[in-house]
Amino acid sequence: MALNRREAIKRGALGLAGVAAATRALKGSEPKLHQAHQPGASAAVGEVTRAGIDPLVFLEHFDGGVVSRHPSGKTLRTYEIHAIDKEIEVAPGVFFPAWTYNGQVPGPTLRATEGDIVRVNFRNLGTHPHTIHFHGIHQARMDGVFEVVAPGESFVYEFEAKPFGLQLYHCHSVPLKKHIAKGLYGAFIIDPRTPRPAAREMVMVLNGFDTNFDTENEVYAANTVPFAYQKHPITVRRGELQRVYLVNLLEFDLINSMHLHGNFFHVYRTGTKLTPDEFTDTVMMCQGERHIIEFAYQDPGMFMFHAHQSEFTELGWMGMFNVVEQTA
Ligand code: CU
Ligand code: CU
Asked: How far away, in angstroms, is 181 Cα from ligand 1 center?
């Protein structure tokens, strides 16, 4: 009988030790799920150290590019982005042959202010044709769809950053599903000219990996590494405004979500307005959908955040905020 991910879960192989075993099993040997069966376990054993990103660094890293003056007088932000084939660790001991921007999944979080000129020097150092398709308002020839960049070739994207909000970028080569599932995507923040209120800022790109190529995800995460923020909770100061740039790039599953414990958050849909659209503790997201969420904690302690799809949670999309006093 074919052993798939859902079957593995049904058999009680909770957590990524189970996924790793299931993956090994699928690669030809006999199913050995009983070895991985750990009642009550919901986090993987061991650390992911070769993911290509450090989730705690990625969380708060925003790339403003190299800044100079454009002939028009506007701010010019220049980025170097290379498509690179790279094997990344997506669960302890489980490697995935990713296609990456700059050797990392997600690609760097690009950041500009509305009205800036964004210039991206793109080189395809991979083995398949790729592009960078930016969400935003720009010319057709800068849309990263028609100008497919062959291996060894390059292309320069240049456009004005607009509208302000939380955008994204991803490869638009066909089959699109594959180029996204392989890891070619990232967040693209366009700040309003009048900045948002001061806050501690984070980016979470929701994703997953199909480690056995059956067009279903075996692992789920915020920022690639399953359970990263559960094992290493994100320290948050009590009372401080938190702003999370949340982008859903999960392939294969039609819907994803973000649920926060012990609190509610304001949702700014696509980040294109400065007034919140909703006050809730759970927001649903289709692929490509993104929101800015804002919240502050009034009490110290550990608070979970995770997908409200329990299955995704058990397979890695789970984290914790550790709320501490201001002085900490
Ligand atoms: Cu591609
Ligand atoms: Cu898109």
From this structure: 10
Ligand nearest to the CA of 131: 1
Phi and psi torsions of 230, nearest 5°: -85, -45
Whether the predicted model's global pTM rises above the 0.85 cut: yes
Q: Strands of 318-324's sheet, edge to edge? A: 234-237, 318-324, 301-306, 255-260, 282-286
Structure tokens at 72: 């028009």
Tell me the CA–centroid distance for residue 171 and ligand 1, in Å.
Answer: 5
Q: Could you give the CA distance from residue 222 to residue 51 in angstroms, rounded to a whole number?
A: 13
For residue 16, give the 3-state DSSP assignment: helix
How far does residue 291's CA lie from ligand 2's centre (Å)? 14
Q: What is the pLDDT of residues 132-164, one digit of tens each?
A: 999 999 999 999 999 999 999 999 999 999 999
What is the distance in A from the centroid of ligand 1 to the CA of 135?
16
The structure tokens listed for 275 are 């007034």
> Which tens digits make up the pLDDT trace of 204-257?
999 999 999 999 999 999 999 999 999 999 999 999 999 999 999 999 999 999
Ligand 2: centre distance to CA 288 (Å): 6
